[in-house]
Amino acid sequence: MERHSVSLCREKLFKVLVIGDVGVGKSSIILRYVKKRFDERYKATIGVDFAMKTMEWDTSTVVRLQLWDIGGQERIKKMSRVYYKEAMGAIVVFNITETSTLEAASEWKQELDSRVCLNSGRPVPAVLLANKCDMTGRSKVLVSSLDEFCNVNRFPGWFDTSAKDNINIDEAVAFLVKQMMLCDTGLSNEERHRDWIKVNEAPGEIQSQSLCCWRPRLDQTKADAGVAH
């Protein structure tokens, strides 16, 4: 009889807020990431929706993401504190073809930073998604300003994304998870959302990813065409 090797593995649960103005594609990004599909008929979220995603981060760590899809109308109403409670990270989304949604992304980030922080007092990690990069009408001036925008608004990085064409969705989330893992490690004795489970040592269905603190760069030809790497 074949024996399966079993070892202790730590499990981490991260609550992640997905925020941004109405129509920037937050729900489509979550649908693409969790269900691996895209639906053009997807309706705008009213209030809050939830999704779960489990991944084997490495051979000793299972990560569970609780994704809170916050309706774009909520900023106007001022988001309830319950939305922020226990959040360990955020995905802030804007439409790369609409400058006003980038301005709104700054307001969403300020609201986030004013409501929740790490035990160290630092902001929770947040990644900026320049969504709908498959569409025409992107501003090269806007794209060139995003590095400085991230510095000013304390984003560790940004990605061109397309939920429709599945561009950089997995990469952006993996980047955020890595930032959260680094912050969680730094919590020392105040570690959160951790317990131990038994898992098979064999790799799971979802591959772990390791990214440095950088974002994909566009060469000029692809930038003009509005297509990311």
Helix and strand layout, with pairings?
Layout: E1 6-19, H1 26-35, E2 48-58, E3 61-70, H2 74-77, H3 81-84, E4 87-95, H4 99-115, E5 126-131, H5 140-144, H6 146-153, E6 157-160, H7 169-185, E7 194-200, H8 220-225
Parallel strand pairs: 1-3, 1-4, 4-5, 5-6
Antiparallel strand pairs: 1-7, 2-3
What does this structure look like?
Strands 1, 2, 3, 4, 5, 6 and 7 form a 7-stranded mixed sheet that branches. The longest helix is centred in the middle third of the chain and has 17 residues, at 99-115. With 229 residues, this protein is of the alpha/beta class. Strand 2 (48-58) and strand 3 (61-70) form a beta hairpin. It starts with 5 loop residues before the first strand and ends with a helix. Helix content is 31%, strand content 27%. The radius of gyration is 18 Å and the shape is globular.
Please provide a brief summary of the model.
The chain has helices at 26-35, 74-77, 81-84, 99-115, 140-144, 146-153, 169-185, 220-225, and strands spanning 6-19, 48-58, 61-70, 87-95, 126-131, 157-160, 194-200. It is α/β, with parallel strands linked by helices and 229 residues long.
Salient structural properties:
disordered C terminus; 31% helix; 7-stranded mixed sheet; 229 residues; alpha/beta; 8 helices; 27% strand
Runs with pLDDT <50, length 5+? 186-229
Largest sheet: 7 strands, mixed
Counting DSSP E segments of at least 2 residues, the number of strands comes to 7
| Rg, Cα atoms, Å | 18 Å
Distance between the termini: 47 Å
Shape: globular
The percent of residues in helical segments reads 25-40%
H/I helix tally: 8
Q: Roughly what is the average pLDDT, rounded to an integer?
A: 78
Q: Tell me the series of helices and strands, N- to C-terminal.
A: EHEEHHEHEHHEHEH
Strand content: 25-35%
